[in-house]
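[job 0412] stage=complex_fold ligand=magnesium ion status=START
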Amino acid sequence: RGKLLDVSNLKVSFYTYRGVVKALNGVELWMDSGERLGVVGETGCGKSVTSLAVMRLIEQPGEIQEGKIIFNGRNLVELSEEKMNNIRGVEMSMIFQEPRSSLNPVMKVGYQIGEAIAKSKKIRIKNTYPEVKEMLRLVGLDAERVMNSYPHELSGGMSQRVMIGMALATHPKLLIADEPTSALDVTIQAQILELLDELARKMGNAVMLITHDMGVVAEFCDKVLVMYAGNSVEYASTVRLFEKPLHPYTGGLLQAVPRVGRTDELKAIKGTVPDLVNPPSGCRFHPRCPYAMDICKAERPPFVEIEPDHYVACYLFKGKNEVREDG
Ligand code: SF4
Ligand code: MG
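[job 0412] stage=complex_fold status=DONE, emitting structure tokens
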């Protein structure tokens, strides 16, 4: 599986007054170096929780309960916070939907990017400024001006450029982008994606792109992971997934392809996302699935390889290794 990142059987729960929210129910996800993986699914399917778990940013009342997150040969689940802190923002970085909320409002932009570089290189912030300037130019900003600006002086699009510059300044192996364009104007969205595309190509880092926009996935990603109610339900190359979606949920998602720039949620699939305090038994999709059988209610379908590099969790399909030729 993935040489850069290999997440297996990842379980995360949140302890709330309503009960235990089983947000991730054994997620499987992997990536190779330099690869772009799109993680898709409706709101509440666990896309963001998965990415936060990979960054080890799940906070109380949430908890990683089981599973492995192997990144570059180390199991992040077992690392001390101190060791994790040397990886986060250095070997893997993250950008969010709301760039301004991730910037410190009372510090100049140049200083904030400098801080990130200083941490990774273990040098003084003032010695990072040439690099900060270069990074700002690389993300298409007027370096001199933006260095000395406060976050509120920048537009949403400029702030996201700053975030991308800050995230890539340390040359991480993995950039996680959680809905990086959905808070921006339509015209700016395309520019930001283009910038991400260009820089990731130049720097060779892998990108995990979390989105509910299948149009963006088609343009940007090599591979796609479809999540449903805290489970990985289908994984394939982007080309294969669009050409031959196997899981009934993926079929519904593709019919719901929103026009580029529309940020409302996918509505083509009947029914609603299940309550994860009392999730449906067996296959969590069974109440919405037109093909549900008895076994679907009884047992969770395993995530198995159906054809090379194409994985599905659904009883309609038998794994590659289980298929027997007769005679
Ligand atoms: Fe539908 Fe059963 Fe497949 Fe789940 S396992 S998607 S309920 S057919
Ligand atoms: Mg989210």
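The pocket of iron/sulfur cluster (ligand 1) is lined by residues 247-248, 283, 285-286, 289, 291-293, 296, 301, 314-316 (CB under 6 Å).
[job 0412] exit 0
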